[in-house]
Amino acid sequence: MILPVPKANAMLICDYVITERGTNKKSLIGIFENIGAVVFPCTHFAMSVYIKLTDAQGGYHFRLELVDLQTDTTIGKSEMPEEVQVPSPLLAHELVFNLRGVRFMHAGEYEFRIFSNDKIFGQKKFVVEQMTQNPSADENV
């Protein structure tokens, strides 16, 4: 049976996602689209990627890839540990990927790509920016 490719209704990057017990409601904390770093390479110690999808039905293996758009190379990936069952294409389904120790070698554009059964169905670009270090207050005295 050929499974329908899901549709990504939302794809957001944030500091972390809280899932409420009982209701399974998600709270996204610290949504962002840019990361600033003074020196490179840099490590972003914790971030989450939230995806809301529809138009899926059946069993899916979901994979998230992080791509350096300057070199078009995959620099990281995360997979759901088990097959996810989606009962109806009319129901929305939510995925959360919690990422730790994400390393960026240089400033530039990056992109998260979400796959279901090896087919891409969503992307989210973001920028890692070179920041200048603020002088400490006692240097201005």
Characteristics:
single chain; 141 residues; mainly beta; 0% helix; globular; disordered C terminus
Give a verbal description of the structure:
This protein has 141 residues and is mainly beta. It has a single domain, classed as Immunoglobulin-like. Helices cover 0% and strands 63% of the residues. A hairpin with a 6-residue loop joins strand 1 and strand 2 (26-31).
Biggest β-sheet description: 5 strands, mixed
Shape: globular
- What portion of residues belong to β-strands? over 45%
Radius of gyration: 18 Å
Write down the secondary-structure element order.
Answer: EEEEEEEEEEE
CATH C-level label: Mainly Beta
Number of domain units: 1
List segments where confidence is low: pLDDT < 50 over at least 5 consecutive residues.
137-141
Distance between the termini: 72 Å
Which architecture would the CATH scheme give at its second level? Answer: Sandwich
Can you tell me the CATH topology? Immunoglobulin-like
Order of adjacent strands in the largest pleated sheet: 3-11-10-6-7
Tally of DSSP helical segments: 0
Structural class: mainly beta
Helix share bin: under 10%
The number of distinct β-strands equals 11
| Mean pLDDT across residues | 93
